[in-house]
Amino acid sequence: MCEANKGIYIKAGQFVAAIRQVPKEYSTTLSSLQDHAIPFQFESIKHVFYAPCCFSKRPSGSGVKVQYPGLEFQWLVTELEKSIASELDFIAEAKNLERIRENFKDNSMVRVPNVFWDFTTRQVVKVDDLEFLKERGISEVKVAKFLAEVFAEMIFVHGFLHGDLHPGNILVSPEGENGFSVVLLDFGICKQLNEDFRLKYCELWEALVVKDSAKIQEIGVYFGVGKYSRYFPVIFTGRTIDSKSALGEGMSVEERKNLKQELKSLKMEDISSFMESLPTDFLTVLRTDGLLRSLTSKLGAPLRVRLLAYAEYALYGLSLKADSKSDSAIEVVLFRFKIGLRYIQLRLLFGILGIVSWLENIKHTSTRRFKDFLASAGFVVRSLYRPLLTA
């Protein structure tokens, strides 16, 4: 059906194939749309070229970007219209590619090809090709961790992100400093985030990590969702706003039961109101986060990998806050000093969580002792961190 209807149906199929929660029969079938779409008849597209080109009419893949006939359309849905229109603008896509390559110019682990893309080798495969990764001795979890860091840097630091994250646009090469490198493709859909949104989103993730419920609700008011902000922790971290569990551990049986009961009182109009109130930038990162979450899960990485990457880059993103003209030199120095202290204490949290992760693999550690340690570690870190939040 997707191949028959083409256009937006192809994009929808790519999205569905990337979601881990979709039944395997669907995701496996639709994954062919990510890099093996049926080629269009040459006679129908040759008029697109305005100058003579010498190349074979027989397709060697679906990597050549050609605008199919009939795709000059107008949609009533504003954001979808902008998104699709930008993807059909191949000049804009080339500029997006160059910008992302510039953003990662000092990171040898990220490889962004030029507009011709023909220099990539046959050894480069889709990022979710687990069999290939195992054959080459490439750690799936390390790939997942690196991907989380790349997209966290785009969102929290650059404020400019790739908006079409699916396995067909993320390839892995066995060449690189740490045994692999990541190749990013297809820059037709990229998003420039509003600077105020970027900073507030950084603050939201800082609050999510340290479980500062008051700050989460304050930011929820800023984003226009009011009381629904209490569900931010559930959406992003898998914990309730009053959860006692550690980062990445998920909800307890009791918390899950209470949440289920609470959600019963919500109506469809409540959910609709929540989604409509969110800024368009928030919806963009929400979609990207959902796809990244599915991908890292498929690679076998624990939830903590993504959460820690987001938390670390969110804090770094806050340190890049543009200096207000009204701020004095002393205020700027104090702000950066405060951010520096937050970063040090957040690293302490990461270290403790790393120890916790290591303890998970020790068979002789009893469940009770582990939970006691976890609770104690969380209390210590929050005790150290909370004074800075109110400073």
TrEMBL record:
Sequence intervals crossing the membrane: 340-359
Gene3D superfamilies documented for this protein: Transferase(Phosphotransferase) domain 1
Pfam families per UniProt: ABC1 (PF03109)
Keyword Transmembrane helix (UniProt): yes
Domain ABC1 atypical kinase-like span(s) in chain numbering: 67-219
Keywords on record: Membrane, Transmembrane, Transmembrane helix
InterPro entries in UniProt: ABC1_dom, Kinase-like_dom_sf, Mito_struct-func_regulator
Protein name: ABC1 atypical kinase-like domain-containing protein
Protein's organism: Solanum commersonii (Commerson's wild potato)
Classification lineage: Eukaryota, Viridiplantae, Streptophyta, Embryophyta, Tracheophyta
